[in-house]
């Protein structure tokens, strides 16, 4: 039987053309009034997944 892709992971992780795993940064969903503008700008955009998580996430995505 084929393995199924983890649906929670596929919604959160994008794979680049070169094969890197990219994710959104945590902490930009709520309680933004008390966070400084500098902090919210720092949290914008995507970042690469940590090497410790890479192997596990690839298995969850079926890559």
UniProtKB/TrEMBL annotation:
Biased composition regions of type Basic residues, renumbered to the chain: 1-14
Pfam families named among the record's database cross-references: Ribosomal_L35p
Region annotation (Disordered) ranges: 1-63
Cellular component GO terms held in the UniProt record: ribosome
Comp. bias intervals (Basic and acidic residues): 33-44
Keywords: Ribonucleoprotein, Ribosomal protein
Family statement: Belongs to the bacterial ribosomal protein bL35 family.
PANTHER family: 54S RIBOSOMAL PROTEIN BL35M, LARGE RIBOSOMAL SUBUNIT PROTEIN BL35M
The protein's name in its UniProt record: Large ribosomal subunit protein bL35
The organism of origin for this protein: Actinomycetospora endophytica
Gene name tied to this protein: rpmI
């Amino acid at each position: 039987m084929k393995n199924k892709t983890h649906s929670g992971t596929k919604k959160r992780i994008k794979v680049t053309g070169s094969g890197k795993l990219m994710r959104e940064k945590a902490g930009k969903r709520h309680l933004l009034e008390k966070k400084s503008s500098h902090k919210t700008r720092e949290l914008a955009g995507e970042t690469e997944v940590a090497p410790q998580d890479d192997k596990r996430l690839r298995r969850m995505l079926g890559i």
